[in-house]
Amino acid sequence: MVSNPEISQNGNDSIEQFAIMPLPNRDAKEPNEVYNLNEILSFTQNEYDRFTLELSKKFMIATHEAILKWKEQNIYPEYVCEHLSILNSSKSNQQYKMLKCKQLAYMSYLIQLYRLNTAQLRAKSPLNAFQIPESAVNKLFSLYTVVSSDNSQGKKVRSMPRRLKDKLTCHILIMALHIDEFLTSMEGLQKDLKLSIQKLTDFYQALGCHIKVSVITIDKKKIISKKASLSLPLNEIAKGEKKKRARKL
């Protein structure tokens, strides 16, 4: 049990306040080698396959109508539903589709945990409604939450300190990079994570991504679109901030 978790009271949202950032593989020859999912998300391949088995099968056979219903009823995150729609209409082979469905299944778990508020985290089984396998729930809770004593009532409560929320955010963004072949649109994730584009930009730059900005026209209105690209060499814009963070840990 972890008591009295350190929760930042500082309202400063600068990148220097992000408590936990994964270290990239500086010897990587390809983008997919920069952040190894098994290492970053702390699971073995066997665990990953078990965690995502049932939901990935459900995603594989989902119809366009089912995906639309999931999106409208907010059953799965919008990012996940949008990608399932694209996958549903693609001509990719079954092996590739299953790979993506597994990634989207685990992404769904991460975002659903991220969206739990303080009261929901304190509930007895806060993720039961999402039908996430118990073994996966236990893994998620061990990585991104802590249990401490509530002095007012003398009972144990679960919470997600700022440092672990940042860690979860980073892991969601890294999973998105893998799903999107290392070029991710920020707008889709912004809706699920409720973060500003600037905050997402800060996170992605700290992860070594390059930011691509484009202007698109929709209904005669010009809209600025941002994408995060994980390409080599890595973006070193946040190198100074990373050193400051390392001294704090």
Could you outline the blueprint of secondary structure elements for this entry?
Layout: H1 37-40, H2 45-60, H3 64-72, H4 78-89, H5 94-114, H6 118-121, H7 134-144, E1 146-150, E2 155-159, H8 162-179, E3 183-185, H9 186-193, H10 197-206, E4 210-218, E5 221-229, H11 239-248
Helix pairs in contact: 2-5, 3-4, 4-5, 5-8
- Total of DSSP H or I helical runs spanning 4+ residues: 11
State the end-to-end CA separation. Answer: 20 Å
- Class per helix and strand makeup: alpha+beta
Counting structural domains, the number is 2
Beta-strand percentage?
5-15%
**Which stretches are low in confidence, meaning pLDDT under 50 for 5 or more residues running?**
1-17, 244-249
- The number of strands is 5
Percent of residues in helices: 40-55%
Estimate the mean pLDDT confidence. 87
Basic shape: globular
The side-by-side strand order for the widest beta sheet comes to 3-5-4
Order of helices and strands: HHHHHHHEEHEHHEEH
Radius of gyration: 19 Å
Largest sheet: 3 strands, antiparallel
Can you give a write-up of this model?
- The chain has helices at 37-40, 45-60, 64-72, 78-89, 94-114, 118-121, 134-144, 162-179, 186-193, 197-206, 239-248; strands at 146-150, 155-159, 183-185, 210-218, 221-229.
- By secondary structure, it is an alpha+beta fold.
- It has two domains: 35-161, no CATH class; 180-249, no CATH class.
- The protein has a three-stranded antiparallel beta sheet. Strands 1-2 form a two-stranded antiparallel sheet.
- It is globular and about 55 Å long.
- The two termini are 20 Å apart.
